[in-house]
Amino acid sequence: MRAVIVGGGVVGLFTAYYLSREGASVTIIDPNPGERSRAAAGILEFTRFKINRINVVGYPTSYLKMLARGNARIRRFDLKWLAAYIRVYAREAPKEVWESVKEMGRFSWAEYRRLAEEKNDFDYAEEPLYELVEDVEAEAEELRRDPLQPKFEIAEFAGRRAIAYLEAAKLSTDLATARLISEARAEVVKASAEAVGDGYAVVGGKRIEGDVVVVAAGVGAADLLGLPVAPFKGYGFRLRAKAPRGMFIDLADTGVAVVPLSQWVKATGRFDLDSSRDDSPAARVLAGAEKLLGSAEVIDLAVGYRPCTPDGLPIVEKAGERLVVATGACRLGWTFGPALGRYAADLALGKRGETPFKSSRFYVVL
What we know:
The chain has 9 helices and 20 strands. By secondary structure, it is of the alpha+beta class. An 8-stranded mixed sheet has the order 6-7-5-15-16-17-14-18, with helices on both faces.
């Protein structure tokens, strides 16, 4: 089988990895595979969905607070996405969806452990994630309503009361993308796809044929297939700085997440509804990181776009006889990357039927 994967982010790379292990010949179409996904902090939250529940009652108010603090901005307003958001606002997903999300978490957790046991060259480690929030009790109450029922406790971090999420892990997104690119053994076409269809992608006006095409292009799925996927932009710095005693997110002030790794400290931030090339907000992320860590030397900066559907749940489905889609995991792309890659590979290979993550949920009343 020849598989063409449009998009070389974390989901596309895991899809390529699993298809290659099944004996498929894989081609990845992406200008720079892994570059956008390495902007992420590398925080894995296998049993918590709270940060992705952007359609719950009260979330718009929370986002307005982020805007007021200067930790987010809006530069793109997609009316189609907004219409879908209104349609699913306050809608609770069916029980079977949450069971599938739990299974994705279990699978991804097991896969990261397996990959680390083979060779931990991507700084994988399991440790608590600390959240510094304005109101610890309110945050704890919200976590109790999380459909995945995460384990947590109220603890102290850096002299402050915090939420300690106990089923978390971390990895270096920079090292993990390099590992996946190496093990996927794929031919890479360094370009952007202009169009996709059943069994083909168009690059530079020419068709690249495949037995199956997998669109794992993140926010690119909106342009290629008209799916409701919005670009929530974020910035990730690799820093040389004094490492904190654990990974944490400062939600009370700077909005910056900090992950200490073996060779550097990763600091990430912003949740901008923005597809522009203006990267000036990165300066605020760096300033926030220095406020939390002290002086820091910048190694480099990566910019990424979290592909968010209106309900924060992914889209994974067959869009044609030889066309598969896997996108929309929002802020949990790395967390669910192995599972989404496996789902997409199984759909491409005919090993899996429908998933509960179909795009039709945004256009029909359930």
